[in-house]
Amino acid sequence: MCQKHNEFTQNPSHFEGSQEEQATANLVELDYKEYIKDMKFFDPHIHMTSRTTDDYQALADAGVVAIIEPAFWLGQPRTGLSTFKDYFSSLVGWERFRSSQFGIKHYCTIGLNSREANNEALAEQVMDILPLYLYKEGVVGVGEIGFDDQTPAEEKYYRLQLELAKEAGLPVQVHTPHRDKKKGTERSMAIALEHGIAPEMVIIDHNNEETVKSVLDQGFYAAFTIYPFTKMGNERMVEIVKQYGSERIMVNSAADWGISDPLAIPKTAALMKIKGIADEDIRLVTYQNAITAFAQSGQILVEDFENPVIIDQSLKYNGNTILRGGQQPRVNKDSIFIR
Amino acid sequence: MQQHNLWEILQKNASEKEIVWLTSKSTLPNKGIQTAFVATPRFISRKPLVAENTPFETWTLDRLARVYLLMCLDSSDETAYVDLLETLFDTAEMNEAVALYVALPYLAYPNRWLLRATDAVRSNVGIIFDAIAFHNPFPKTYFNELAWNQLVLKCIFNDKPILLIDGLEERSNQALADTLSDFAHERWAAGRTVPSEVWQLVKGFVTETILEDLKLLQQSNRQEDREVATLLIHNS
User: Fold this and answer.
1) Is residue B216 located within the same domain as residue B157?
2) DSSP E strands, chain A
3) Low-confidence residues of chain B, pLDDT below 70?
4) Is the same domain home to B9 and B70?
5) Reported ipTM
6) Same domain? B25 vs B86
7) Does one domain contain both B135 and B33?
8) Structure-derived torsion over alpha carbons of residues B55, A321, A41, A34, reported in degrees to the nearest 10
9) What domain range includes position B157?
10) Contact B135/B63 with Cβ under 8 angstroms?
11) What is d(CA B22, CA A204) in angstroms, rounded to the nearest whole number?
């Protein structure tokens, strides 16, 4: 992807800090965890389906205690209803279990993504099964839905799903398009308001410097995806928080099958700390605001992840820990021996 | 276990508000009960049950409520009844799946659930495997020998406590005993151990090969191994 690597590192495209800050950042790069060792994080957008078990380990080690996995496009279009159904089931089943093995609480949002809304014949069938999933435990919203190419079909299913969210009393997680982003974001917000959805029930995702002001001014939550090359860098994110504060702002990694970083939130928190952002503001944008927004679903119990000893009574049989599904044993990755 | 017993335990554990909700849902047509099953945790708490000496003592209240709702389904039309439950299985999240598997002994048309039950044994999700394997009378009643032996072997392989399996002694068999001997040889070759309680499964099926295993086990540095081996050799 980045063939001329040296050239790239010498010319950081979005670096906003002073030379002194850059020097400090380089110095601490290797042990950034020192700056966040007592913090805990909530990643409200990460596609663990596309990640390995090593990433769960890394998330747990970095202080990520809970995550939300939005339903999305898997990289190629699905051809039938069954694959959609199996995918939704894996978000409330297998992935939830995999996550629990590392002590991370896993929530999800369920929805028909914008790209696949363009296959109308299939989209109709998917709409039929969505209500079966939206009322399930731990489903904290309808998402990620919205616009990609901004076609009439995308608009149609965005509107229909807004109605589902309204009926179920669930927050909406809105994907904003890569192309023609500013107009797409404005349109997404206008349509949500038109359907009578309160702005505080809507999390507008993948914001940047150009979209944030309008999103906040209209009362929506503004999520920022820290994702190399195509979305936000975390140095830019620090500047956003300096300028707009911490109210209704949250960061996420949106880590998926692309070149992305599941540790985007801990790294951004460390950078904020280094750059002098107050601890309370860091806590709000990397943890609390996401919880406040998605807990409007009634499906988030903070005790489930703030109490690290036993996560869920229903997962315990007679106090026998091996029966809770058991936390995974630690493996020393630097050892040449595999036992 | 009869439906009214289950209802008694529910009444003992649930609040008045929860009982009102359950009562109103339990008399709905099947489709309404299906939705109530999914929505249960929104109305019924997840607290552990007070139910000593019943099959439910390790359950939570929402799980018992879900099983109760399933028992209230009208099963007179077999096809419609099975379809409705299959949809619940197909779309289940983890706690729903557990409730479905622990409910298997109480469902109508038990032979229609055999594939589901063996699928749960194949599951890598710990609590789903546990739901079919432990304190559940469905496998001992309906599993054939092959399925039964897979259940026991997978339990041992995953270092789970076999003593929680219902019917362990009455369903033990020669094929299982022989496979356990092979399994022990593999473990020993890898420098690993076999939990000593596993050897109880060879009781009544001690062949020449297994006798050799037991003699070897008598030299184990773990006391519980030596005890179980001596006892089995003495009884064989």
Assistant:
1) no
2) 41-43, 64-70, 105-110, 139-146, 172-175, 202-204, 221-225, 249-252
3) 1-4
4) yes
5) 0.72
6) yes
7) no
8) 170
9) 109-167
10) no
11) 38
- Return the structure tokens found at A223: 């999520």
Distance from B92 to chain A by nearest Cα, in Å?
Answer: 7
Q: Are residues B235 and B221 in the same domain?
A: yes
B115–A contact, CB cutoff 8 A: no
Query: Helix, strand, or coil here: A101?
Result: coil
The minimal CB distance from B126 to the residues A89, A97, A138 is found for A97
Considering only CB atoms, which residues of chain A are within 8 Å of chain B? 85, 88-89, 92-94, 96-97, 129, 132-133, 135-138, 298, 312-315, 317-318, 320, 322-326
The answer to whether the beta carbons of residues B70 and B103 sit under 8 Å apart is yes
**Do β-strands A221-225 and A41-43 pair in parallel, antiparallel, or remain unpaired?**
unpaired
* B103 and B195 belong to one structural domain: no
- Measure the CA–CA gap between A291 and A161, rounded to whole angstroms: 22
Q: How many domains does chain B have?
A: 3
Check A324 against B159: CB less than 8 A apart.
no
Q: Could you say which of B59, B83, B107 is where a domain stops?
A: B107
User: How many alpha carbons fall within 13 Å on the CB side of residue A54?
Assistant: 3
Contacts of residue A26, Cβ cutoff 8 Å, sequence gap at least 6: none
- What is the per-residue pLDDT for A335? 72
CA-CA distance, A24 to A274, in Å (whole number)? 8
Q: pLDDT tens across A158-202, in order?
A: 999 999 999 999 999 999 998 889 999 999 999 999 999 999 999
Contacts for B146 with CB less than 8 Å, ≥ 6 apart: none
Residue pair B10/B68 in contact (Cβ under 8 Å)? The answer is yes
User: Would you state the structure tokens that stand for residue A136, as one six-digit string?
Assistant: 């399930």
Inter-chain touch A97–B90, beta carbons under 8 Å:
no
What domains can be seen in chain A, in order of their start residue?
A: 34-324 (3.20.20.140)
Q: Do B21 and B55 sit in the same domain of this protein?
A: yes
**DSSP helix/strand/coil, A259:** coil
* pLDDT tens by residue, A84-133: 999 999 999 999 999 998 999 999 999 999 999 999 999 999 998 998 89
Q: Report the side by side order of strands in the sheet with A202-204.
A: A41-43, A64-70, A105-110, A139-146, A172-175, A202-204, A221-225, A249-252
> Which of B149, B167, B185 is the C-terminal boundary of a domain?
B167
Q: Are residues B187 and B199 in the same domain?
A: yes
Q: What is the pLDDT of residues A2-29, one digit of tens each?
A: 334 444 444 444 455 677 767 766 666 6
